[in-house]
Design goal:
By secondary structure, the protein is an alpha/beta fold. The protein has three domains: 139 residues, Rossmann fold (3-Layer(aba) Sandwich); 225 residues, 3-Layer(aba) Sandwich (Rossmann fold); 101 residues, ANL, C-terminal domain (GMP Synthetase, Chain A, domain 3), CATH 3.30.300.30. It is 33% helix and 25% strand. A five-stranded parallel beta sheet has the order 4-3-5-6-7, with helices on both faces. A five-stranded mixed beta sheet has the order 12-13-14-15-16. The chain has a four-stranded mixed beta sheet with strand order 2-1-11-10, with helices on both faces. It is globular and about 70 Å long. The N and C termini lie far apart (56 Å). The relative contact order is 0.09. The N terminus is likely disordered.
């Protein structure tokens, strides 16, 4: 596809303006019974933006939204960043201590809440945790520091179009638009700062290689995660497509929406594939409208991918992080299935990748080292964390991903594992991801997580938590025998524990911190 880099929009609001000019009557957002065209979306965003200015929100102030994927999320996000505020999402599934940490770290001046929601009155919870000067805008009844959304929006009448345009014109491409907190698999979550340029470039580059498959997608993903915000919403938005918001991952309700709306774009993960295959009555042909499947988050076994190849959809194995603003590498859409299973593809347009050893020097093909990336859409740094930023970004603009990869002869990158998860057993470097992938090739296994425990003889050995497909049974001895045909014997975990369900983070990745605590308690 031709490179249109020169006419890219570099501020988030420009993408909305462009879509309104091109397709004013095309549907932009669907949320339950609400359906907004791009024209109507712009009118709603402008009203929120004026109300934010009237409420005293300044450039650089933080504005948060606590809600499931919804119209409230998308409109408040677009409005906030359009006037130079820095937006961040709060997940309704978080506990009080999560909110306490995030509110203290980001110090938002204003928070939108979908409250009450799912039996929790978030306005009350958050007001007890946050600074006295934080304002709350609620979909529910006004109380204490929480103003109703309708009353808040009345303030828009105090700001005219010229004042709104002046504020928007002062926003620069390098201004921070969003803080996305890392999922915190190690230590406290850090706020990755993503600029307008980063979000726009990432979305437009993805829209170019993904193409028409982006014309419609369902977003059930958390709003505080780059998977939901960028890989689904902003990619579809940059193409000019329709985003269907859905509040929770409910396979039956999602299935009904999919049958009605027939969205061609599906973003998923090994966990997502397994959930589909495990749900009663699921048949791949039930999603015959899917034209583009983009999957990442971990390596996906070939046996998991095979049932989906019958759809004839374009498929791509992708890689990205919060710090890369989402997807940064992808396999070719026509790559053979073994390449989709074994690699994360090649760097996207404008992305430079290199694999380096401990000395920082680039490694030859086939040697495993840390993946470094440089692109116009990596983060600007961590919010209020200059030391962590200096450790992660090199002086010449490369991002340390913390992931071990190797370059193959065919130019694709193979993902080996995460530096922080690597352990040494009898002098060998062990990468849990490789072992997890081998375990998941067993037809009775849904997913697996491998961690290390101390060992007198080998210093450390592997401990595997294994989730079986519902109704299946498997003995540890049988699984060891299966692995013996696939990986070196020193990599095979010494202990296997079979669980009904592995604990998951809100972004559907396995919660290894939870499992680590469990092992630390058992083997102090």
């Amino acid at each position: 596809m031709s490179n249109h880099a020169h006419d890219d929009c570099l501020r988030v609001y420009e993408l909305l303006q462009r879509n309104v000019l091109r397709w004013p009557d095309r549907e932009a957002v669907i949320d339950g019974d609400t359906r907004l065209t791009y024209q109507q979306l712009q009118e709603s965003v402008d009203q929120y933006a004026k109300a934010l200015i009237a409420a005293g929100v300044q450039r650089g102030d933080r504005v948060a939204t606590l809600s499931p994927p919804s119209q409230l999320f998308f409109v408040s996000y677009l409005a906030s960043v359009s006037i130079g505020a820095i937006w961040h999402g709060l997940n309704p599934r978080y506990k009080r201590r999560d909110y306490q940490y995030l509110l203290e770290d980001a110090q938002p001046s204003l928070v939108f809440t979908m409250s009450p929601y799912d039996g929790r009155v978030y306005d009350q919870e958050l007001q007890e945790l946050s600074a006295q000067n934080t304002r709350y805008i609620t979909l529910g009844e006004a109380q204490d520091r929480a103003q109703s959304l309708n009353d808040f929006l009345q303030g828009a009448s105090e700001i005219n179009d010229e004042q709104l345009a002046d504020r928007r014109n002062s926003i620069q491409a390098e201004d921070i638009a969003v803080i996305v907190y890392t999922s915190g698999t190690t230590g406290s979550p850090k706020g990755a700062m993503l600029s307008h340029r980063a979000i726009c470039k990432s979305a437009q580059i993805n829209a170019r290689w993904m193409g028409d498959g982006l014309r419609k997608a369902v977003c059930p993903a958390p709003i505080n995660h780059v998977g939901g915000l960028n890989n689904i919403c902003m990619n579809v938005f940059a193409w000019g497509g329709t985003i269907i918001f859905f509040h929770r991952v409910d396979p039956i309700a999602l299935y009904d929406i999919n049958r009605t709306e027939r969205p061609p774009y599906l973003v998923t993960s090994p966990t997502g594939f397994n959930m589909m295959l495990a749900s009663p009555g699921f048949d791949v042909q039930l999603i015959d409208f899917v034209e583009l499947i983009v999957f990442g988050g971990a390596t996906t076994p070939q046996s998991t991918l095979e049932p989906f190849t019958t759809l004839g959809a374009k498929m791509s194995s992708v890689y990205g992080q919060t710090e890369t603003c989402g997807i940064i590498t992808a396999t070719d859409l026509d790559a053979p299935i073994n390449v989709q299973a074994e690699t994360i593809g090649k760097g996207l347009e404008d992305v430079e990748v290199k694999i380096v050893g401990n000395d920082g020097l680039e490694l030859p093909v086939g040697e495993a080292g840390e993946l470094l990336v440089r692109a116009p859409f990596i983060m600007s740094g961590y919010y209020n964390r200059p030391e962590a930023t200096a450790e992660t970004l090199t002086e010449d603009g490369f991002l340390h991903t913390g992931d071990i990869c190797k370059l193959r002869e065919d130019g694709n990158i193979a993902f080996v594992g995460r530096i922080k998860e690597m352990f040494k057993s009898g002098g060998y470097n062990i990468y849990p991801v490789e072992i997890e992938q081998a375990i998941c090739e067993h037809p009775d296994v849904s997913q697996a997580a491998v961690l290390s425990i101390a060992d007198d003889k080998f210093q450390e050995v592997g401990f595997a938590f294994v989730e079986l497909i519902a109704g299946k049974q498997l003995a540890a001895a049988e699984l060891k025998e299966f692995l013996d045909q696939r990986i070196a014997n020193f990599k095979i975990p010494k202990t296997f524990e079979f669980l009904a369900k592995l604990p998951l983070l809100p972004n559907a990745k396995v919660d290894k911190q939870n499992l680590r605590k469990e092992l630390d308690n058992r083997f102090p």
